[in-house]
Amino acid sequence: MLVIVLENAPPRLRGRLAVWLLEVRAGVYVGTYSKRVREHIWAQVEAGIEEGNAVMVWRSNAEAGYEFKTLGANRRMPADFDGVQLVRFFPDVSQ
Q: 71-94 in b/e burial notation, b at 16+ Cβ within 10 A?
């Protein structure tokens, strides 16, 4: 299983992902692909994200049963704690 969530992404990237994945909600894409195809899809996200941000989650043999990676600025950023990937939540500085 592969899930990609986009925020503030340009319409052309959203359309590009819709070719490969099913958009179940606005900006939320799901599918099942091999590692090679997953990396190709992520390269498309990296090339087209512009000022937006994205997260990709996929099933793996890791301790948690999944792995994820992010791209762009977001208050939730991955942090590695002794080999376990967790999410660090930063406070909102705009207020």
A: bbebeeeeeeeeeeeeeeeeeeee
Report the alpha-carbon angle 70-73-77, nearest 5.
50
Q: What pLDDT tens digit does each residue of the chain (95 aa) get?
A: 999 999 999 999 999 999 999 999 999 999 999 999 999 999 999 999 999 999 999 999 988 888 999 998 877 777 777 777 777 777 776 66
- The tokens for 20 are 């490969």
CA 30 to chain centre: 11
Beta bridge partners of 31: 2
Domain assignments of the chain as residue spans, ordered by start: 2-89
Q: Strands 53-59 and 28-31: what pairing?
A: unpaired
pTM of the model: 0.85
Q: Does domain 2-89 have CATH number 3.30.70.240?
A: yes
